[in-house]
């Protein structure tokens, strides 16, 4: 059976589509080309013979290109996922399956994939389950991956720290959360520049931005000042390198409240809600610590 | 090796096969010995020269720098020329020969360098919107397209601030319809009423403004020099030949039956920096000469000769535009988009130090500045730009003009829109001209469209067949309303 499959896969080259239609179906399903239409030989197919080369660099580069394309394809938006799970769960499944963590409204537990590859998320639509926080730190999320964030009306916390492919374009995409997002963390992203940070002003409800260790930002203090001018309600953390040391140690968490250089506004919040900034900081420190 | 008597005749004949059909439309003293294309070159002489160079330690190329023949000859090495070269060459780097002729490798007068570098999705013609959207996608994935092995990945310093068009009451209806059209095509544009504008941009004076359209994503500005440099580096790594020379003439050959002769663009006559003339035979010649595209077309007889099919000229001419650098220490902040006023005056933030670039197009044909040089007219700033700017943004009353520069628009006098595709008579001459002021943002998808047209025979991604040359012959303009 396996050899028959192999023979068929060898026979089913695109050129045989017209004479063996069943083979075309096999070829497409086996090589995951479902939905792609064969357009016919390109008119310059003879010129491709020039590309036959024994140059090692060429083949290595081709392999890298193929791996990159697979990565992009893996993070594409899949409508079946959205239909089956609904917007909040679809995004949650997407993030958790790629080594992120999520948290829902009303729950205090971070959901993360464990070492066996399993995660505790339902596999069909659940009413009343809304996504509140996404922690994608350390993942390889791309711009195509962000297209999975659809119809999230309760998202308040986003953490993209140490994402090596997260750049200005991804930051400019986050304008879709302008009414709901309250905390954004882009520390340690090597591709973020001050031009990307200048798009943060679209997030009108943002209360805290963390921008530590951004190697491509030339004057982080200056950028933070300009941002504070146009977003008076937002706290900018991490622009001055000294504060990073304070945040990293859990015991000194409370020192932040008494540090005179940082201005944490608590006046505008209602009494029934806990102090948002402290709660936000609480979220920031619970990630990854207890394995949840 | 056997040689026929014909070939022996050829190698002894200095002018080559075409000696009877001498180049036309050149002056008498230019009709000297131009080494004709297809000239037989003795291998013995080439070998002797090679040995001599080796012993003299004189490493010179054996081929003349201007190639004798090439498949695609691109006139102009700016943004559009480099983009066309990139897309043609990346299809088959080793199987397709592309040559780019650029007379000014320092790009001192090229519009690509002197552009403000904005990219917007807010156009009134749907194809223009699609073109800009592809440029955004390309710039987002610039690493995949334009990175060269062993070099840093290219970066065009894209600012994502968006464009803001402000319109008075009478144009509000038209703007909302345009925004609907742009949103249907996938652009992310928001219509803002007076309240939203006042809240978002408190430095704006809203007198006389009814509506504004703000680009939320993918719009902004970038450094066009970095883009052209990245394109050029990638092209050279793939094997595109950048030649310093100037196209002075085309060699037109008469083909066909007696009594029904047609003209055929056989080869291009190129002058090298030392003043010598060379001919280069090509499969396609792509006219990407920017503001001087009309001149190139006239050399091919388009608009000059009386033959049927050559009577309509290419209506592209250079128009000078000024950009002024203004310093305003207390000006609009980090969120400033590229704002375009009702009068046509625009400004944008430059860097983080309180500098702004501003400019405007003259309101009528009579006020068009002289295009013989790139001198800046500061009176235009005093009379047109600064009053409108200070009225619209009161903070600019306390500002100082720091410097200015001028550049050329490749202005299409017919309808200010793109002219693309082959000429109906000279089928091997292809145009990519006439983008009055939005050349840099459409350069990349135009290159791709031409690649699809020339190699696949039809437009595959964005259908630009409306913009081909026959609309100039049939006098059917496609007016682009939102010209800045």
TrEMBL record, chain A:
InterPro entries: LRR_dom_sf. Belongs to the ATP synthase subunit s family. This is ATP synthase subunit s-like protein.
TrEMBL record, chain B:
It comes from the Eukaryota. One of its GO terms (molecular function) is oxidoreductase activity. Residues 72-453 form the FAD dependent oxidoreductase domain. GO terms for biological process: mitochondrial respiratory chain complex I assembly. GO terms for cellular component: mitochondrion. The keyword Zinc-finger does not apply. The keyword Glycoprotein does not apply. PANTHER family: FAD-DEPENDENT OXIDOREDUCTASE DOMAIN-CONTAINING PROTEIN 1, SARCOSINE DEHYDROGENASE-RELATED. This is FAD-dependent oxidoreductase domain-containing protein 1. It comes from Potamilus streckersoni. The lineage of its organism: Eukaryota, Metazoa, Spiralia, Lophotrochozoa, Mollusca.
């Amino acid at each position: 059976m396996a050899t028959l499959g192999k023979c068929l896969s060898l026979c089913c080259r695109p050129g045989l589509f017209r004479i063996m239609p069943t083979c075309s179906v096999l070829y497409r399903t086996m090589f995951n080309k479902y939905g792609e239409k064969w357009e016919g030989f390109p008119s310059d197919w003879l010129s491709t013979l020039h590309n036959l080369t024994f140059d090692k660099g060429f083949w290595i580069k081709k392999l890298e290109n193929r791996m990159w394309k697979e990565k992009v394809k893996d993070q594409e938006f899949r409508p079946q996922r959205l239909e089956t799970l609904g917007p909040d769960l679809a995004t949650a499944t997407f993030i958790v399956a790629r080594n992120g963590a999520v948290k829902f409204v009303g729950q205090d537990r971070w959901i993360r994939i464990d070492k066996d590859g399993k995660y505790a998320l339902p596999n069909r639509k659940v009413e009343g389950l809304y996504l509140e926080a996404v922690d994608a730190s350390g993942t390889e999320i791309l711009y195509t991956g962000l297209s999975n964030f659809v119809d999230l009306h309760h998202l308040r916390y986003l953490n993209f720290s140490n994402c090596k492919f997260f750049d200005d374009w991804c930051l400019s995409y986050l304008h879709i959360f302008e009414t709901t997002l309250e905390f954004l963390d882009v520390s340690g992203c090597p591709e973020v520049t001050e031009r990307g940070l200048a798009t943060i002003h679209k997030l009108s409800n943002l209360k805290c931005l963390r921008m530590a260790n951004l190697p491509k930002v030339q004057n982080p203090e200056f950028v933070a000042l300009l941002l504070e001018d146009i977003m008076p309600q937002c706290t900018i953390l991490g622009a001055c390198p000294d504060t990073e040391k304070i945040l990293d140690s859990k015991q000194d968490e409370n020192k932040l409240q008494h540090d005179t250089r940082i201005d944490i506004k608590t006046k505008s919040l209602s009494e029934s809600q806990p102090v948002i900034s402290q709660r936000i900081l609480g979220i920031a420190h619970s990630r990854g610590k207890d394995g949840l | 090796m056997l040689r026929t008597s014909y070939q022996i005749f050829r190698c002894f004949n200095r002018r080559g096969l075409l000696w009877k059909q001498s180049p036309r439309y050149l002056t008498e003293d230019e009709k000297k010995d131009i080494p004709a294309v297809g000239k037989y070159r003795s291998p013995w002489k080439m070998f002797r020269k090679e040995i001599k160079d080796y012993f003299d330690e004189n490493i010179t190329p054996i081929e003349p720098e201007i190639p004798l023949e090439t498949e695609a000859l691109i006139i102009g090495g700016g943004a559009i020329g480099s983009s066309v070269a990139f897309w043609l060459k990346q299809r088959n780097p080793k199987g397709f020969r592309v040559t780019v002729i650029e007379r000014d490798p320092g790009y001192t007068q090229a519009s690509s360098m002197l552009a403000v570098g904005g990219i917007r999705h807010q156009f009134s013609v749907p194809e223009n919107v699609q073109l800009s959207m592809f440029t955004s996608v390309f710039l987002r994935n610039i690493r995949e397209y334009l990175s060269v092995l062993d070099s840093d990945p290219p970066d065009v310093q894209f600012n994502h601030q968006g464009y803001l068009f402000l319109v008075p009451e009478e144009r509000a209806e038209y703007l909302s319809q345009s925004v609907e059209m742009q949103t249907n095509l996938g652009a992310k544009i928001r219509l803002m009423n007076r309240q939203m504008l006042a809240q978002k941009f408190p430095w704006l004076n809203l007198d006389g403004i009814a509506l504004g359209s703000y680009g939320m994503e993918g719009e902004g500005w970038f450094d066009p020099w970095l883009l052209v440099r990245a394109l050029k580096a990638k092209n050279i790594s793939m094997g595109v030949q950048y030649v310093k020379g100037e196209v002075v003439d085309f060699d037109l050959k008469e083909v066909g039956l007696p009594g029904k002769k047609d003209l055929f663009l056989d080869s291009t006559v190129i002058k090298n920096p030392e003043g010598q003339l060379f001919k280069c035979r090509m499969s396609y010649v792509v006219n990407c000469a920017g503001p001087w595209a009309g001149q190139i077309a006239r050399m091919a007889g388009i608009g000059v000769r009386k033959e049927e099919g050559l009577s309509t000229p290419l209506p592209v001419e250079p128009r000078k535009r000024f950009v002024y650098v203004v310093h305003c220490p207390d000006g609009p902040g980090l969120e400033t988009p590229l704002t375009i006023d009702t009068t046509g005056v625009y400004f944008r933030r430059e860097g983080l130090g309180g500098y702004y670039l501003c400019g405007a197009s003259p309101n009528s044909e009579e006020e068009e500045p002289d295009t013989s040089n790139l001198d800046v007219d500061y009176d235009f700033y005093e009379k047109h730009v600064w009053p409108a700017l200070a009225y619209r943004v009161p903070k600019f009353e306390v500002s100082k003009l720091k410097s200015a520069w001028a550049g050329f628009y490749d202005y299409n006098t017919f309808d200010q829109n793109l002219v693309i595709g082959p000429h109906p008579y000279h089928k091997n001459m292809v145009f990519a001209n006439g983008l009055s002021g939005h050349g840099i943002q459409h350069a990349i998808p135009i290159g791709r469209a031409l690649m699809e047209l020339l190699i696949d025979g039809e437009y595959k991604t964005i259908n630009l067949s409306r913009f081909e040359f026959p609309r100039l012959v049939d006098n059917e303009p496609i007016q682009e309303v939102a010209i800045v």
